Amino acid sequence: MLLDAFDIFLTTGFWVAAIRIASPLIFATMGELICERAGVLNLGIEGIMTVGAFTGWFTVYAGGDLWTGVMVAALSGALFGLLHGFLTVPLGLSQHVTGIGITLLATSLTYFTYRVALSESTSPPKIEPFQPYPVPGLSEIPFLGEILFMQTPLTYLAFIVVAMVAWVLYRTPLGLAVRAAGENPVAVEAQGISVTAVRVGAVMVGSALMAIGGAFLTMSAFNSFFFEMINGRGWICIALVVFGSWRPGKALIGAILFAAFDAYQVRLQQVTGGVIPYQIFLMLPYVLSIVALIVVARRASYPKALMVPYQKGER
Amino acid sequence: MTAQQSGEVVLNLSGITKTFGPLVANDSISFSLKQGEVIALLGENGAGKTTLMNILFGHYVADAGTVTAFGHELPKGDPQAALDAKIGMVHQHFTLADNMTVLDNIALGTQSLFRPSFDRAKAKQRIVSHAEDFGLSVDPDALIADLSVGERQRVEILKALYRDARILILDEPTAVLTPLETDALFRTLKMLVAKGLSIIFISHKLQEVMAVSDRVLVLRGGKMVGEELTANTDRKALAGLMVGEDIQPPKISEPQTGKTVFKLKGVSAKGVGTGADLQDIFLELKAGEITGLAGVSGNGQAALAALISGTLSPSKGSIDINGEAIRSWSPRSALAHRIGRIPEDRHAVGMIGDMSVTENVVSERYLGSRFSKMGFLNWGAARRFAESIIRDFDVKCPSPEARVRLLSGGNMQKLILGRAFDGDPQMILASQPTRGLDVGAVSYVHAQLLKARARGAAILLISEDLDEVMTLSDQIIVMSKGRLSSPSKRGARTIADLGTLMAGHGFEGASDISSKEPDHAA
User: Fold this and answer.
1) Best to test chain B binding among A168, A169, A176, A198 (most B CBs inside 10 Å)
2) B273 touches chain A (CB under 8 A)
């Protein structure tokens, strides 16, 4: 039995699933990371992912193209990001309270819209989701090719997003301004850049990514929208940002690690054949992420001005 | 420096007025700055110097008046416009991001935010060449957090030079520097002027103003009360203008030294905030003496103060009070041993701003039978106590029910003095007791400390103001990197000696530093 449990790691199916499960986490983690790097905690993530899951899927259901669906999801996410940014940056309200408010608002507004728009249907309608797209050439590499290059286009986009976020944060003047806004907003203002613009902009872009993460679930992983389908993934992403010490590369590793635990526990349930209650396995990734946080996050140095509102003209 | 006085006018302020509610921070202030000139803006805390410079730099919007730089009027409330007009500002509190490199901090905002990549190599080359030109050596790739305060200030100056600043404003630049670093700064300023920059130097320290400026403008209560060529004036005249009255220096009698009240033996403890850890501290405080603790902030003073007031426990070593070893140490036991405490940050630690004067003054003793009975507060007694402090310490406040945060810094400090001095403490811990106070309040605090000394209290005065330490203290100890130097009697060490110690040098064999003096002369 122990050998079986280990053999899981050698199957491609396991790794394909891990990458698939990681994809929405990667989008949302990058989104949260951008917000926090600019100094704004975005606890609206869970609600914004719900909004993205619904709007993206609904656009396709109503006859839109799949990529149009992704765009609509991103835009609706950015809109909630604008709301969160407006409340927390120029108005300087508590980022915790506002974020939780955004999650409650966005989630219930989504469910309400779903009920109103689809009042007749008893079972959730289905769409034709993104299909796996083997990358020519690369997908023929044994083992790795199957795992990494036979995924859906949205998964590829997730990895591209990580590279882009890392590039922008560390290689561009804009990224420098974003990071400085999260470290010491006074330094940003003194150099003639508007802290408000940088922070609100970062929250909007970050929220758009969160919404795409939500949309991945309804448009790539599954093909319809359910209530409660985000199921705490947003909160996991908050932890992943800490786990990744606010660095895109490390956060990516964290997301894949968590997803691997998740994929593993499902398979472990089958191997052990019901001797151990399945809830134990469900719990496993969360327990491990708490342990990982304890180990890693104690040393993490977080952005100095995270959750510190900045008001111009006050010192 | 007469040659410079014929230079063209580069900056002109005209009729600047700014009010915050009922407070007139700047009342119709006008002056102009010439090319290659150093103007000192002299004034007490609260005179309106910083407000004026924040208007000039666009952080605040003036109610009236105009700022003209190089012949162009600046739009109001736009720091970018001030930067574009080649005005650079070195703020009193540095505007640097600690977890980022020198290069990142300097280049921030100098390249278009929409560039697809950041030209590091070019920025680095420019920083290095400016650093060489102006003698401001600094490693572009170092993290700000790893730099000393003096180096951070150099980065701030480089930040302005990097943007081709022609006018440099320095707001209280020496407040955080050791005497050595101050000298280095003054050399830098001379070099900047030689290269044609014009400088506004904001300060309340007279000797610095006399040392660096060509012309002095004096602000008091938001008004411009004097303008003198530095060569035509002296410290005494400027002090009179700045304060508006003659302040008598405190009269200091011979100390009536008594028995040892408080002793730390080999105490080590973890640092507070970003401050240094305490390492193997020996400290002896005697009745009737003021012990002055000098040092640059962040060297462990906060931890030592926290230790003495009971909020920090020693990890090693022992505390003796009146010759008895103390076993458990807490704020409560510090109070029980009659230690009066004047905390460093009166807003954050000393007082609770949203509670009343009465509530604040009884906050150390409300549990005792004096102010409570069977778990109920005796408001009558509390109020009478507050009234007695207001009367005895001349606190200006509307009533004992007033919220403390509405009081000025000086009046708040008087309340704290009243609370700390109640019950005739045998020891007083005065941590930065005059920081941010105006001259009148400072001399009041000094007089009260001397009074307590005459009553026989042992006093520890922790201060970053070397003048204050040297004036009041019967013995002086320097703190650096969490260690204490040996004590020296009044006048035994010169400013230069103290400065060397403050910079962390000479701690080994520090006890005989005064006997080394002939070497210096040789």
Assistant:
1) A176
2) no
Provide the shortest C-alpha distance from residue A177 to chain B (in Å): 6
Is A314 within 8 Å of chain B by CB?
no
Provide the domain limits for residue B231.
2-243
State whether A301 and B159 contact (CB < 8 Å).
Answer: no
Domain boundary among B243, B263, B294: B243
State the SS3 of B332-361.
Answer: HHHHHCCEEEECCCHHHHHCCCCCEHHHHH
Q: Note the pLDDT tens digit of each residue in B190-228.
A: 999 999 999 999 988 888 899 999 999 999 888 999 899
> Within this chain, do residues B233 and B255 fall inside the same structural domain, yes or no?
no
Whether B267 and B380 share a structural domain? no
Strand partners, B9: B34
Which residue of B lies nearest to A191 if distances are taken between CA atoms? B109
CA torsion angle B78 B79 B81 B84 (round to 10): -170
Q: How many CB atoms lie within 10 A of CB A224?
A: 16
Fold of A2-119+131-297: ABC transporter involved in vitamin B12 uptake, BtuC (1.10.3470)
Chain B residues closer than 8 Å to A304 by CB: 97-99
Q: What is the CATH number of the domain that holds B182?
A: 3.40.50.300
The whole-angstrom separation of Cα A206 and Cα A210 is 6
Checking if the pLDDT of A315 tops 50, the result is no
Neighbouring C-beta atoms of residue A230, cutoff 10 Å = 26
From chain B, the residues in CB contact with A187 under 8 A are 95-97, 105, 108
- Nearest residue to A9 (alpha-carbon basis) of A254, A253, A221, A261: A261
Instruction: Return the axis-axis angle of helices A45-61 and A12-37, rounded to nearest 10°.
Output: 120
- Would you call A180 and B100 a contact, using CB atoms and an 8 Å cutoff? yes
A311 and B CB contact within 8 Å: no
Averaged confidence pLDDT in chain A: 92
**How much is the pTM?**
0.79
Would B346 be classed as within a structural domain? Answer: no
Is the sign of the CA dihedral A20, A111, A107, A78 positive or negative? positive
CB-CB: which of B84, B105, B112 is closest to A187? B105
Return the residue of A nearest to B111 by Cα. A173
Q: pLDDT tens digits for B441-490?
A: 888 899 999 999 999 999 999 998 888 899 999 999 999 989 999 999 99
Residue B115 has pLDDT above 90, yes or no: no
Determine contact: A245 vs chain B, CB below 8 A.
no
Of residues B303, B212, B138, B508, the one with CA closest to residue B500: B508
Average pLDDT over every residue of A110-114: 95
For the ranges A67-71, B353-357, B511-515, which has the lowest average pLDDT?
B511-515
Q: Are residues B308 and B365 in the same domain?
A: no
Does B107 contact A at CB distance below 8 Å?
A: yes
Is the CB of residue B20 less than 8 Å away from at least one CB of chain A? no
Lowest mean pLDDT among A295-299, B153-157, B170-174: A295-299
